[in-house]
Structures are given as structure tokens and as C-alpha cells.
Design goal:
It is built from 14 helices and 24 strands. The protein is an alpha/beta fold. It has two domains: about 5-20 and about 235-420, Enolpyruvate transferase domain (UDP-n-acetylglucosamine1-carboxyvinyl-transferase, Chain); about 25-230, UDP-n-acetylglucosamine1-carboxyvinyl-transferase, Chain. The protein is globular, with a radius of gyration of 21 Å. The protein binds uridine-diphosphate-2(N-acetylglucosaminyl) butyric acid. Uridine-diphosphate-2(N-acetylglucosaminyl) butyric acid (EPU) binds near residues 25, 163, 168 and 189.
């Protein structure tokens, strides 16, 4: 149970300028990637979020020397003292991305033992494609349910993923970066952070080509050197801020983002009647008048991201007409919608499809966040609603959004923490 709740007085259009933070899903992959290297690395634009702090704890426990300077968003990691190869459940249950420790430790020292990863409860989340890739590279993998052990000297291989997986693609890149020979990854994921991780490994002297396409070619190198690298901005935070701006019928410019990463969301917002304009590294989102309902189908990049489905479907609860949202990536990623129904939304959920009949008003109510993006969706709903929304379990939000309340407050939102005693 979190020791605070978020209180939002809704109905205020957001307006002004804001800046996007460094990417969560790229940071949680780039930090373990430092383990492949034999020298210190400096990572810039690393966001001050819970997931990063858990990963720092894991890196420290493995023996790395880590310094995080939140005011500079700079993380310095010296992997040379790393001696451990085991990451226990006490750490992995807090962080899905702890699975990257397997690929990174395997690549570094030919042995890794990592407890099954936790993370957001949004579906089944199997690990078979990661294991398939490690085995193809020559590792012996033992999966005992609670703990996965992988060991062996790795050699390049051709791997065809049976389904597109972000984590599986990155883990295979991590393991193959120093494997002996060439690796080909087919049916690879194409998300921007896959390109970012490949660019980071290449900045240390690695050889990864084709990241961002469905075929990635890796030539294993025996040594990676230290590097200073800046991670890309967070496209899901950018999208969440775009949605919050539109949903409150506001006028917000988001600086420091990469507009081309946002195309699937921008297209949907335009279809809804939102005004979106872009420059090289900024997006302005404005709404004049109402929003039209749209249909959404989540897909791998460059399709509509599952991570934005939740905030977007929150916004659709007040769009004119009926929206159909089809979640194809994760089985149970609609847990925010029954909560928003408590605020007056009209929603029916049939397996992985949500049918949303737009209403003209939402009303503030007590609601509970069940995962990171569900938390963001409830914030969007709270910003749209008349009256006060009280979000229970808001700690999920701090896992992946850097200082969201401060950013929204600076845009005019009335949002604050209320600390509660443990008995309440
Ligand atoms: N899948 C398998 N087998 C595998 C791996 C995945 O069947 O071995 C399935 C999954 O069950 C899912 C689909 O493939 O149905 C895609 O999963 P993927 O591996 O792409 O997801 P992930 O690596 O577990 C990352 C992000 C998620 C994001 C997804 C999809 C990180 C740490 N997590 O998860 O981010 O939703 O990709 O883009 O990068 C979030 O930020 O809120 C979040 C959950």
C-alpha cells in the first residue's frame, strides 16, 4: 500500500510548455548493457524514476560502482568490479526489465542466474522467446519456474522470433554483442529504444546493424570500451502528455521529444479533431471544440503502442460517439476502464476489446491504479473530470514517469499528493 494518494481537481485545460524526460524503456536496457563493457560508462538523460532506482540497486548488488546525479540526469557506471552472476527475486519482482540482466551477464561472463521478472500485471508475459534466443546462441538454459540459469560460451546464430518481442530482441542483442561470430535476428521488434540500445552498444565499439528494421545483424566483438551516451526521450511520456493536453482541451507544447516516434498517436489525435503541429524536437497539441470517437488497435512499433492504449482509452470515454479499442499485445490491459466507469464512463469489455460510448461528463471519484499506464490513464480521467478524483496506489506512476505531478502542475493542473497514515 502506498503511503500517499493523488488528488486531482479536474476540468482545467492544460496550457503552456513542458519538457519530456529520458526514456524509461531505453534506460532500463542501456543500464544493464554497461555490463558488457570493460570500462566505466557515462549515461545522460537517465530519468529519476523508480524503475531506474531499482536497477541501480541491482547493479550495486552485482558489484558495479554506480553514481546517479539526478539534477544532471547522469548515471556513471563502472562495471569492472562486478563479480556476482545472480540477481535474486527481492530485486526482480520489482522490475520487469530485470530480464535484461540475463542477456547482459551472459554476454559479460558466460553465466547468469536471474529470478523470474515481476513488473506490471497486464497479462501472461511469457519468456520463451528470450530463452530460445539464448539457446540458439549456445547457452544452456535451465528454467525452474522461479529462477532462470543460463551459461555457456556464446557463438553467433540465426534466430527467427516466433512473435515480435521488444524484450526478446534487446536481450538477444545484449547476449550476441560479444558472442563469437555473426548473429542474425529475424522478425525483430523495431521500437525506437531497440535502435537506442544498438547505438549505445555501437558507441562502445560493438557492431550492430539494421536495428529499427525487422532484421538485425550483429558481429560479435571481443571487447567493448567505455562510452558517454545520451538516451532518447521517452515516447510514452510524450504521448501521455499529448493525450492529457488534448483530453483537457488545452494547448500544450512538449519540448525535447522526437515527433517521428509519435506518428501513430498523432494520426489518431488528428482523426479525433485535435490540432497537432510539430517542429524538429517539439509537438504542440491543442483542442478547439469536441473530439470524435476513433477505433484503436494496438500493435508493435510503428503501430499504435499498447503503452498508450490506456491513457488514450481514458480520453475516448469523453469523445463523441462509440470507440472500439482492440488490445492485441497484452491480455489484461483494460483494468483502468472499470475504474473510469466509476467516474461515469460507459464501457463494455469483451476479452481484449473495449467498447467505449463517449459521455459528456466524468465525475471525480476514488479510483485505484493497478499498473503504471493504468495510473497514467486515471490521471488523464481525473484531469478531465468535474470535481475531485482520488487515486489510490499512485506509486505505480512514479515507476515510469519522472515528476509527473510537477510537470502537470506547471501546466495549470490541480494535482497533489496527500499522505495517509498506515491504518487508513
Ligand atoms: N511474448 C511472448 N514470449 C516472449 C516475450 C514476449 O509470447 O518470450 C509476448 C508477450 O506476452 C506480449 C508480446 O509478446 O504478448 C510482446 O511482449 P514484449 O516482449 O514486446 O514486451 P516486454 O518486453 O515484456 C516491453 C515494455 C513494455 C511494453 C512492451 C510492448 C520494457 C521494460 N517493457 O515489454 O512496457 O508494453 O514492450 O511494447 O521495455 C510499460 O512501459 O508500461 C510497459 C509495460
Amino acid at each position: 500500500m502506498d503511503d500517499y494518494r493523488l488528488l486531482i481537481n479536474g476540468g482545467i485545460p492544460l496550457s503552456g510548455d513542458t519538457c519530456v524526460s529520458g526514456g524509461k524503456n531505453t534506460s532500463v536496457a542501456v543500464i544493464p548493457a554497461v555490463l558488457l563493457c570493460d570500462e566505466p560508462c557515462v549515461l545522460d538523460n537517465i530519468p529519476d524514476i523508480e524503475d531506474v532506482h531499482v536497477l541501480i540497486d541491482i547493479m550495486n548488488a552485482l558489484g558495479a560502482k554506480v553514481l546517479y546525479e539526478p539534477e544532471k540526469k547522469r548515471l556513471t557506471v563502472d562495471p569492472r568490479p562486478v563479480s556476482q552472476d545472480t540477481v535474486p527475486y527481492a530485486f526482480t519482482q520489482k522490475l520487469r526489465a530485470s530480464y535484461y540482466l540475463l542477456g547482459a551477464l551472459l554476454g559479460r561472463q558466460s553465466r547468469a542466474q536471474v529470478a523470474y521478472p515481476g513488473g506490471c500485471s497486464i497479462g501472461n508475459r511469457p519468456f520463451d522467446q528470450h530463452i530460445k534466443a539464448f539457446r540458439a546462441l549456445g547457452a544452456e538454459v535451465e528454467d525452474r519456474g522461479a529462477m532462470i540459469t543460463a551459461q555457456g560460451n556464446l557463438r553467433g546464430a540465426s534466430i527467427v522470433f516466433d512473435r515480435i518481442t521488444v524484450g526478446g530482441t534487446i536481450n538477444a542483442m545484449l547476449a550476441a554483442a560479444k558472442a563469437n561470430g555473426k548473429t542474425l535476428l529475424y522478425n525483430a521488434a523495431r521500437e525506437p529504444h531497440i535502435v537506442d540500445v544498438a547505438n549505445f552498444i555501437n558507441s562502445m565499439g560493438g557492431s550492430i546493424k539494421g536495428a529499427g528494421t525487422d532484421t538485425i545483424r550483429i558481429r560479435g566483438v571481443s571487447h567493448l570500451h567505455g562510452s558517454t551516451y545520451t538516451v532518447i526521450p521517452d515516447q510514452i511520456e510524450t504521448g501521455t502528455l499529448m493525450i492529457a493536453a488534448a483530453a483537457t482541451r488545452g494547448d500544450v507544447t512538449i519540448h525535447g521529444c522526437i515527433p517521428t516516434h509519435m506518428e501513430s498517436l498523432t494520426a489518431k489525435l488528428l482523426e479525433m479533431g485535435v490540432l497537432v503541429s510539430e517542429s524538429d524536437d517539439a509537438i504542440r497539441v491543442r483542442t478547439v471544440g469536441g473530439h470524435r470517437a476513433v477505433n484503436i488497435k494496438t500493435q508493435e512499433y510503428p503501430g499504435f503502442p499498447t503503452d498508450l492504449q490506456q491513457p488514450m482509452s481514458a480520453m475516448l470515454t469523453m469523445a463523441k460517439g462509440t470507440s472500439i479499442v482492440n488490445e492485441t499485445i497484452f491480455e489484461t490491459r483494460f483494468k483502468h476502464l472499470p475504474e473510469i466507469a466509476r467516474m461515469g464512463a460507459h464501457v463494455r469489455i469483451l476479452d481484449q476489446t473495449a467498447v467505449i460510448e463517449g459521455v459528456s461528463e466524468l465525475y471525480g471519484a476514488p479510483v485505484t491504479a493497478t499498473d503504471l499506464r493504468a495510473g497514467a490513464a486515471l490521471v488523464v480521467a481525473g484531469l478531465m473530470a468535474r470535481g475531485t478524483t482520488e487515486i489510490f496506489e499512485p506509486g505505480f506512476i512514479a515507476r515510469g514517469y519522472e515528476h509527473l505531478e510537477e510537470k502537470l502542475t506547471a501546466l495549470g493542473a490541480q494535482i497533489r499528493r496527500e499522505y495517509v497514515s498506515p491504518q487508513e
